[in-house]
Amino acid sequence: MTDMNAEVLHLLKQQGDSLTALRDIERFAYFSTPEARADFIYRCLKAGLRLRNTSEPPEPGAGFGAIVFHKDVPDEHLLGQVVSLLTGLATACGGRYDGWETQVL
Question: How many Å apart are CA 51 and CA 61, to the nearest integer?
Protein backbone atom coordinates (compact mmCIF):
# COMPACT_ATOMS: atom_id res chain seq x y z
CA MET A 1 0.00 0.00 0.00
CA THR A 2 1.26 3.48 -0.75
CA ASP A 3 2.06 6.00 1.95
CA MET A 4 -0.80 8.16 0.66
CA ASN A 5 -3.31 5.34 1.17
CA ALA A 6 -2.02 4.75 4.69
CA GLU A 7 -2.24 8.48 5.43
CA VAL A 8 -5.87 8.72 4.26
CA LEU A 9 -6.86 5.63 6.26
CA HIS A 10 -5.15 7.12 9.32
CA LEU A 11 -7.03 10.41 8.86
CA LEU A 12 -10.34 8.55 8.51
CA LYS A 13 -9.64 6.67 11.76
CA GLN A 14 -8.70 9.91 13.51
CA GLN A 15 -12.11 11.30 12.53
CA GLY A 16 -13.80 8.34 14.21
CA ASP A 17 -14.37 6.13 11.15
CA SER A 18 -14.25 2.44 12.05
CA LEU A 19 -13.49 1.55 8.42
CA THR A 20 -16.12 -1.20 8.50
CA ALA A 21 -18.97 0.44 6.57
CA LEU A 22 -19.61 0.08 2.85
CA ARG A 23 -19.30 3.43 1.05
CA ASP A 24 -18.49 5.07 -2.27
CA ILE A 25 -14.77 5.43 -2.92
CA GLU A 26 -14.16 8.00 -5.66
CA ARG A 27 -11.12 7.82 -7.93
CA PHE A 28 -9.73 10.69 -10.03
CA ALA A 29 -7.78 10.67 -13.30
CA TYR A 30 -6.81 13.28 -15.90
CA PHE A 31 -6.11 13.10 -19.63
CA SER A 32 -4.83 15.34 -22.41
CA THR A 33 -7.76 14.62 -24.74
CA PRO A 34 -11.43 13.79 -24.34
CA GLU A 35 -10.86 10.65 -26.43
CA ALA A 36 -8.23 9.36 -24.00
CA ARG A 37 -10.61 10.09 -21.13
CA ALA A 38 -13.40 8.19 -22.91
CA ASP A 39 -11.09 5.20 -23.39
CA PHE A 40 -10.21 5.23 -19.68
CA ILE A 41 -13.88 5.43 -18.70
CA TYR A 42 -14.71 2.52 -21.00
CA ARG A 43 -11.94 0.40 -19.45
CA CYS A 44 -13.07 1.32 -15.93
CA LEU A 45 -16.66 0.33 -16.67
CA LYS A 46 -15.43 -3.01 -18.07
CA ALA A 47 -13.49 -3.51 -14.80
CA GLY A 48 -16.65 -2.96 -12.72
CA LEU A 49 -16.26 0.66 -11.66
CA ARG A 50 -18.97 3.25 -12.24
CA LEU A 51 -18.74 6.76 -13.66
CA ARG A 52 -19.50 9.60 -11.23
CA ASN A 53 -18.62 12.60 -13.38
CA THR A 54 -16.32 14.18 -15.93
CA SER A 55 -14.77 17.64 -16.04
CA GLU A 56 -13.44 19.88 -18.73
CA PRO A 57 -10.05 21.59 -18.35
CA PRO A 58 -10.50 24.75 -16.23
CA GLU A 59 -7.63 26.38 -18.12
CA PRO A 60 -5.52 25.63 -21.21
CA GLY A 61 -3.15 22.75 -20.58
CA ALA A 62 -5.15 21.27 -17.71
CA GLY A 63 -6.52 17.76 -18.08
CA PHE A 64 -9.89 16.33 -19.02
CA GLY A 65 -11.04 14.77 -15.76
CA ALA A 66 -12.85 11.56 -14.93
CA ILE A 67 -14.24 10.54 -11.56
CA VAL A 68 -15.05 6.85 -11.24
CA PHE A 69 -16.17 5.09 -8.10
CA HIS A 70 -16.80 1.74 -6.47
CA LYS A 71 -18.73 0.76 -3.34
CA ASP A 72 -16.44 -0.99 -0.87
CA VAL A 73 -15.20 -1.06 2.68
CA PRO A 74 -11.82 0.70 2.55
CA ASP A 75 -8.94 -1.53 3.59
CA GLU A 76 -5.24 -1.58 2.80
CA HIS A 77 -5.35 -4.54 0.42
CA LEU A 78 -8.32 -3.29 -1.59
CA LEU A 79 -6.95 0.24 -1.89
CA GLY A 80 -3.61 -1.04 -3.15
CA GLN A 81 -5.26 -3.26 -5.76
CA VAL A 82 -7.49 -0.51 -7.13
CA VAL A 83 -4.65 2.04 -7.17
CA SER A 84 -2.56 -0.41 -9.21
CA LEU A 85 -5.44 -1.12 -11.59
CA LEU A 86 -6.32 2.53 -12.19
CA THR A 87 -2.71 3.67 -12.46
CA GLY A 88 -2.23 1.06 -15.19
CA LEU A 89 -5.45 1.97 -17.00
CA ALA A 90 -4.72 5.70 -16.87
CA THR A 91 -1.17 5.18 -18.12
CA ALA A 92 -2.38 2.92 -20.95
CA CYS A 93 -4.74 5.71 -22.01
CA GLY A 94 -2.04 8.38 -21.87
CA GLY A 95 -3.31 9.89 -18.63
CA ARG A 96 -2.55 10.21 -14.95
CA TYR A 97 -4.30 8.60 -11.97
CA ASP A 98 -4.59 11.23 -9.24
CA GLY A 99 -5.84 9.44 -6.12
CA TRP A 100 -9.02 8.74 -4.21
CA GLU A 101 -11.32 10.05 -1.52
CA THR A 102 -14.28 8.89 0.50
CA GLN A 103 -16.52 10.23 3.22
CA VAL A 104 -16.02 9.64 6.92
CA LEU A 105 -18.69 7.28 8.27
Answer: 23
